[in-house]
């Protein structure tokens, strides 16, 4: 297993001012570099406490690039439907050049109706816009004099500048929540996979990973060369009870943020998002103790979290990469730094030795 950190702020001005949150997050980027973590990532969302402090992950990652030399920089994920592909391809290529070729580019469809409304994009177009956007961006990165004729975008001939440092382009990840077909399509296209285990059962996720890996191999690619990233909220303290108290508070605030963000699904329906009207009820019935018991949260003393990770490796394979959600903003910088230090010094080395 490899480990990195992911920033998914769920705070607003009443909780923590944005400058303070970003200052804390960038100091944690410094710590990730120091402690040898594999990557840092930032999400893209708008308007709500649920991710709203990060409308442009590339801006944050550019700041992170300027203060690091080694750690990889990932979007988690950026949304092609909300930007012209020439613009998004250019921003990510520029970040790849600034960072010396350290970008991992994850793309997602988005799922919050209010975001689509604000951009004037119909929900029903999200899948087609995603597919077209990713195709255009990959071509812009890898080719010159690109002429593109899509349903939503037409341009060319265009030669993007700057060119990405990584050849032929940064690794491409597809972020998916629940869709088995999205996993299959990602495998067929040769895209890496990024997902959140919290939104489905262990058995569902195992099934989706099997489909993804089968499609990856069936497309002629070497089995085992695919990259799979999971994201987990994480709170570690020397004392397990202290970790659970802090983890419960963080999870309660995160749950409240997502409940507010998905509320419009009560009155919204889209053929592109079958069953998403159930999200509202799911956020009401999801509770801390249940998620912790199912290893959907990594919370506890070092030995307890190591045991959780050993179980996760048995379920999904020990070749996955884990992105640790260490700082949603509701706990202190010191709490997040403690989690990272304990993971780097007492959890990950013992996990590696045990396996």
Automatic annotation (TrEMBL):
<keyword id="KW-0503">Monooxygenase</keyword>
<dbReference type="GO" id="GO:0016491">
    <property type="term" value="F:oxidoreductase activity"/>
</dbReference>
<protein>
    <submittedName>
        <fullName>LLM class flavin-dependent oxidoreductase</fullName>
        <ecNumber>1.-.-.-</ecNumber>
    </submittedName>
</protein>
<dbReference type="InterPro" id="IPR011251">
    <property type="entry name" value="Luciferase-like_dom"/>
</dbReference>
<dbReference type="InterPro" id="IPR036661">
    <property type="entry name" value="Luciferase-like_sf"/>
</dbReference>
<feature type="domain" description="Luciferase-like">
    <location>
        <begin position="1"/>
        <end position="317"/>
    </location>
</feature>
<dbReference type="Pfam" id="PF00296">
    <property type="entry name" value="Bac_luciferase"/>
</dbReference>
<dbReference type="InterPro" id="IPR050766">
    <property type="entry name" value="Bact_Lucif_Oxidored"/>
</dbReference>
<keyword id="KW-0560">Oxidoreductase</keyword>
